[in-house]
């Protein structure tokens, strides 16, 4: 297939607009129109992974972590980032990263952790604001239903578990066309009074172009009147971390065994085991210390994540147990998640899981 076919699918799965400001998800190396015959999936993109892709005749590497975070001013191979990029270009291998955007979706990295820990009734721990927009437009009563349906088909009007959501108000619009105008209603040079419907629909910001295309293609007026408003409402199914519940409550030590075994962790770091049983669990793949207050506020008994610093463990203050299982360990099953999604969409495409463990941290036990 063409490279853009698979990247478009990945960006439908986890839109690039959901990534954090510091991130660099997306196509890092490669031409979207290149032919792709096989892909290798890994957590990180290292020289070892590029060598594996070469050996397995894969000309696309899909990694969770971007190999390039900061701008590259030179490409002379002085560090591993430059060497990876140079080797990929030399061997015509495309590099794609799907990072904090995959962290932010309800079916992403954190959902995989929840599944492996057996959590139910899961939801986003810290929903994101600034993703939703509202379209307001006006048309004649007789055209309103057709226009609404077109906007719904383009992705507008979806709110959580509900679709086809809109608000409609009837009123009177006025206009006077000049000598160049060709109005749908009335004639140029005469003020017209039109019985119109005001239509309001909410949509996700990444869909704006698609929504406006549907508006212009289906609106009968020569000049389409519309407004777009940025909303601060939080989108409940997009954001950081997740929280859910164990079907059966566990004592602290039993829960630690569950995490260690199910997440295949070599070692766990944790705060004091509290006297109450654990029922509600918050999780965040990767570095999640910034969500500790959210986990406490949500009533979680334990917060499972990675990369807590020494002094940050004190912030638990016996209100919650922090379990740090390691960055790699918390995200290692992301590759399996990606492969499952890609195989479902493209069952005949050659997609392979790396055989290499890219964890740069070793443990002496």
What does this structure look like?
This protein is α/β, with parallel strands linked by helices. Helices cover 28% and strands 29% of the residues. The protein contains eleven helices and 15 strands. The protein has helices at residues 3-13, 47-55, 80-90, 100-104, 109-117, 141-153, 208-218, 252-262, 292-297, 327-331, 334-345; strands at residues 26-29, 38-42, 60-63, 94-97, 119-129, 132-140, 167-175, 192-204, 226-230, 234-250, 269-270, 278-287, 302-306, 321-324, 350-353. The strands form three sheets. A six-stranded mixed β-sheet has the order 5-10-12-13-14-11. Helix 9 (292-297) links the parallel strand 12 and strand 13.
Helix content: 25-40%
**Averaging pLDDT over every residue, what do you get?**
95
3D shape: globular
Q: Could you give the order of strands across the largest sheet?
A: 5-10-12-13-14-11
The main sheet comes to:
6 strands, mixed
> What sequence of helices (H) and strands (E) makes up the elements?
HEEHEHEHHEEHEEHEEHEEHEEHHE
Determine the N-to-C terminus distance.
46 Å
What structural class do helix, strand and pairing data support?
alpha/beta
Count of DSSP H/I helices: 11
Low-confidence stretches: none
* Backbone CA Rg: 25 Å
As a percent range, the share of strand residues is 25-35%
Strands, count: 15
């Amino acid at each position: 297939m063409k490279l853009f076919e698979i990247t478009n699918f990945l960006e439908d799965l986890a839109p690039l607009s959901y990534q954090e400001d510091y991130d660099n998800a997306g196509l890092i190396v490669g031409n979207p129109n290149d032919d792709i015959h096989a892909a290798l999936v890994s957590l990180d993109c290292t020289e070892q992974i590029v060598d594996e892709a070469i050996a397995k005749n894969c000309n696309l590497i899909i990694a969770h972590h971007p190999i390039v975070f900061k701008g590259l001013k030179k490409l002379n191979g002085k560090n591993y980032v430059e060497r990876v990029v140079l080797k990929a270009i030399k061997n015509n291998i495309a590099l794609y990263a799907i990072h904090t955007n995959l962290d932010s979706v309800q079916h992403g990295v954190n959902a995989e952790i929840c599944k492996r820990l057996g959590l139910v009734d899961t939801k986003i721990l810290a929903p994101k604001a600034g993703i939703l927009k509202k379209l307001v437009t006006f048309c004649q009563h007789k055209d309103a239903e057709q226009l609404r349906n077109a906007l719904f088909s383009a992705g507008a009007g979806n709110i959580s578990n509900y679709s086809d959501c809109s608000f409609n108000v009837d009123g009177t619009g006025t206009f006077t066309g000049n000598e160049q105008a060709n109005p749908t209603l009335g004639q140029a040079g005469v003020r017209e009074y039109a019985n119109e419907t005001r239509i309001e629909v909410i949509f996700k910001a990444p869909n704006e172009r698609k929504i406006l295309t549907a508006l212009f293609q289906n609106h009968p007026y020569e000049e389409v009147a519309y407004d777009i408003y940025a909303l601060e409402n939080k989108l409940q199914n997009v954001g950081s971390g997740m929280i859910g519940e164990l079907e059966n409550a566990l004592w602290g030590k039993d829960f630690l065994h569950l995490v260690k075994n199910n997440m295949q962790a070599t070692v766990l770091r944790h705060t004091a085991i509290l006297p109450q049983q654990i029922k509600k669990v918050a999780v965040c793949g990767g570095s999640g210390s910034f969500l500790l207050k959210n986990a406490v506020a949500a009533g979680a008994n334990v917060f499972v994540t990675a990369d807590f610093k020494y002094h940050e463990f004190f912030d638990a203050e016996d209100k919650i147990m922090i379990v740090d299982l390691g960055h790699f360990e918390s995200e290692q099953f992301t590759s399996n998640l990606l492969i499952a999604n890609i195989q479902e969409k493209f069952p005949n495409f050659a997609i392979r899981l790396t055989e290499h463990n890219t964890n740069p941290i070793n443990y002496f036990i």
